Amino acid sequence: MQRTSLSVFSLFVLALATLSLVACGAPAGSGDSSKELNLYAWSEYIPQKMLDQFTEKTGIRVNYDTFSSNEELLAKLQAGSSGYDVIIASDYTVDILKKQNRLEPLELAKLPNFANIEATLKNPPYDPDNRYTVPYQWGTVGLAVDTAKVKRPISRWEDLWDPAFKGRVVLLDDEFEVLGMALQTLGFDKNTKDPAQLAKARAKLAQLRPNIKLFDSDSPKTALLSGEVWLGQVWNGEAALAQRENPAIRYLCPAEGCGIWHDNWAVPKGAPHKDAALAFIDYTMSPEAGIMITQAFPYSNPNRAALELLKKADPKLYSTYMASPATNPGPAFLKAAQPVEDKAENTPLWDRTWTEVKSGT
């Protein structure tokens, strides 16, 4: 899964490309709406086994296209009719799409499996009453450390700046999380609107450049598992997958604070196969589908019934899931976690700052 942020220019290019696709009739599906579903979601995030079983149960073929960032998703939908029936959108993105009237209201009466979702994850602030979305997965952004390579205790983001870690740090390729981490390290709000604070975060990250081996949002665990890097900023699910292969990898929320996110199913305005979309979304909230999701992509699962079934069907995986802060963060972890918020009119400033960070200027 990747959450890379794009520049304003990149969004403009994507929008033009999308307009061309729509003009040519792509990617909207053809044929009977009951037999086809066009899905647009993160890469490396949807189990193929789940898609196959949905098709077996319903006869509805799933056309699965992927994006690499919420900003790419926004550009696609803002360009006009996309032809997609179901999307995955993160919390702050849902807020933006709602304001732009780009989502279809859901009919919760047609989603009986919504009852399986943990009550504390219903009715989120970005979508009160779940009028437009239901949860898919949620998680955190924290610090992963290979304790076989790093012998001293690590408890803060500030530890990444230690000269001993020259060329041994991985960061997400995500402007909101990386700049947010630097802001937290400086004691500022992760979503600041203050240009002076952003400038200080850019300078702080410039000091970290010698230690940064790579920016990677697709699979930061790969460099950790190969030993190429020893520690860094990762998605919780990446940490969980890394821990499956290397138990020496530890995942924590640093003392300065960490990140938290919620990904959601939604139906874009004008979806050509809305009935199929509702059938698919309901299926993904079934306990059986929930198990497949956690087996393949162990982020934090909002499906209470799925976790109860997992306890019986795969006790070992359930025990691992419950014991790890990567998948089951405790109260202290969650209290220190801060979400990304819509930057609104400050987005261009954040984009410019990120471009400067990546280019080293």
From TrEMBL:
GO molecular function, one term: polyamine binding
InterPro entries membership: SBP, Sperm_putr-bd
SUPFAM superfamilies per the UniProt record, alphabetical: Periplasmic binding protein-like II
Keywords: Periplasm, Signal, Transport
Gene3D superfamilies noted in UniProt: Periplasmic binding protein-like II
Signal sequence segment: 1-25
Keyword Cytoplasm: no
Residues the record lists as binding spermidine: 44, 92, 174-177
Subcellular location: Periplasm
GO BP terms: polyamine transport
Cited CDD domains: PBP2_PotD_PotF_like
Gene Ontology cellular component annotations, sorted alphabetically: periplasmic space
Protein name in the entry: Glr1359 protein
